[in-house]
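Question thread 4412

I'm putting together a teaching handout and wanted feedback from people who do this every day. The idea is simple: show students a protein as raw sequence, then show them the structure tokens that encode its fold, then repeat with a second protein so they can compare. Below is the first pair exactly as I plan to print it.
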Amino acid sequence: MGTPPMPTVLIIPTGIGCQHGGFAGDGLPVARLLAAASGCLITHPNVLNAAALYWPDVHIHYTEGWALDRFCQGQLALRPHHRHCLGLLLDGGLEPELLERHRQVAAAARFSLGLSIGPEVVTPEPLGIHLEQGVSGISWGGLNRVDLLLEAGHQLQHRGATAVAVVTRFPDESPTSSMLQNYRHGRGVDAMAGAEAVISHLLVRELGLPCAHAPAVGPLPLLLDVDPRAAAEELGYTFLPSVLVGLSRAPQLIPAAVARTGDLLAHQVGALVAPHGALGGAAVLAAAERAIPVLAVRNPSQLEVTATALGLEGVINVANYQEAAGLVLSLREGLDPGALQRPPGQANWILN
């Protein structure tokens, strides 16, 4: 029969400039590798969304970050689901051409990919997205009209949507701005990522439905030496295709207390993989508290919240994601990772 899957969580936080996963879907190869090693990977849109590019995989569960934290804390179960009715929440601040471009994406997703596209709501006024950057270099932001966002989400839910794709008008950066130039050349932080996380967190917490966000911005002038990790964002007018594909098979969010056979629960997780300097999130801390092996991968970013800084015990330090995949496979097969080390006793791997 073969070895059963070992549910594994992959986290690459958004907006902190990770060398892997800090750009336009450049965490997708990592997710595919870990999904193959584990047989069941649970991760979030920042890892999987690559603007117009995507990679469906039945072994990968697409779960928004706020919900993923609650899953790891044991509050939510994830129920595999294969056919959502996708509601489209569109910012009233979209210009007519951008609005029509995103409607065309939804039509293409329906008639070219066969996705079930449901109701559409356009907010009566612009949502008023604003972007900020902290002194650490991390991106963040928010919106002026949270009330309109949540009201539109409820309208979609009442009209039958079981998952929500939201498109908001983001401020256009000058093509010569230093933050944008650094990002396009592979040296900076995604300026949009922090605000995107705020929007999706608000909707998931309010609606209890899978939600994901696609920013709408004007097209940029051609850049001949764009970093390949950022290239997916250079391909078209919209980032919506990957969001619709991801949401189409996103697991339902179920209170853990009413979980049933076949649902994914935190106690089933065999490992959590996260960047070595980004271990302060709720999901990582919950995993450590539950004695789930935490694999801290060398993946530099703007953060240095390490296991040492937090006083976390039982963290497994690995040099790269290939090594993490090997360790996940070892754990899945029931092997002691230390038994593979030579000379014996020299490993940095410590399991509780």
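The second pair follows. I'd like the answer to focus on this one:
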Amino acid sequence: MKRCIALKAVTLALIAAVGQSASAAEDTIKVGILHSLSGTMAISETALKETALMTIADINAHGGVMGKKLEPVIVDPASNWPLFAEKARQLITKDKVAVVFGCWTSVSRKSVLPVFKELNSLLFYPVQYEGEELEKNVFYTGAAPNQQAIPAVEYLMSKDGGEAKRFVLLGTDYVYPRTTNKILRAFLKSKGIADADIMEEYTPFGHSDYQTIIAKIKDFSAQGKKTAVISTINGDSNVPFYKELGNAGLKATEVPVVAFSVGEEELRGVDTKPLVGELAAWNYFMSLKNPQNDAFTKMYKEWAVKNKLPNAETAVTNDPMEATYVGIHMWKQAVEKAKSTDTDKVIAAMSGQTFKAPSGFTLEMDPKNHHLHKPVFIGEVKGNGQFNVVWKTKGPVKAQPWSPFIAGNDKKKDEVVASK
């Protein structure tokens, strides 16, 4: 009799515990964070993980989403491109996340696309990329080429940008740099630049010896025409590249470098004094002055100190961090509009979503092509590692996922991908 009573008590306790666990689960919405926290891309992606956690914590502090708390699930694909797909599948099938915020490189995004399509889940991708893609299951909150690469080269060719006539296309050897440079070659050709005036070089991920390449750039630029470097180097290779640039005495006034993957976070590991005047093209800079950015930078600095992040006292924000912040808030708005985390309902509700971003502009999610309308800024590196804006668009620019400079794309139209 005593044994039966004891077993009954244990059973009731277990049922109560399971009930409490189920109730707790019903009160939360799991969201995935898929960023490299180790390996060559950790220098860039770790800050995006922290931005996502900060944004989630802020949303939770203000009532959550539909009255439910967001529960972040963090995985580390470790700069290993096939592992991104494995970790994405884990987040969706095992952890049951409603959405994933993540990836940096295009090769990592390409790796996970089949998983998100097969399982009909959502990825918010926060980094500038090469375009030539339009997927139902992805929202692109970074820049398309016409929102970064093309305006940057147009600036370099202008009087204000130095009227460059020769170009070095220097990048990491993978999808984004090669496709972007294919677009830029075609664009330069349309402007009358000959193939002989374009030098194209690639290095592997993690490359650290740029002495030979810098020497080749110096030789290439010494042939009588103003030369500029377009850098699509990604990850920790930017540190030795900029160090060698400084060591070689190649100044911005002689051969300017405009970077598409270097922002405030990457420059924290470099002595920026020899790099004053070098350029970067983005849709956001930490140095922008407006109330939204003041609040955003203050929030992140406080987050860094509170969570004892490395070098918290010098914490910075950058473009992909802003894109992460905007993407999470837009997803929240779409879920609340749809009154559901169902993928197809959220996709429909994302159409036309707007958000007043730290850039100072109200950004809109295009109703048809899953890309944001974004402003474009070109900034010069300052001695303190920040950027001084030297050029900007008057307002947000609509993304062109399919570049008109690639043959055949003139026949492609931005489509309502939700119907695919």
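Top answer:
Good format. For the second protein you could add a caption like this: The first strand starts at residue 28 and ends at 34. The domain at 29-143+291-311+320-374 is CATH 3.40.50.2300 (Rossmann fold).
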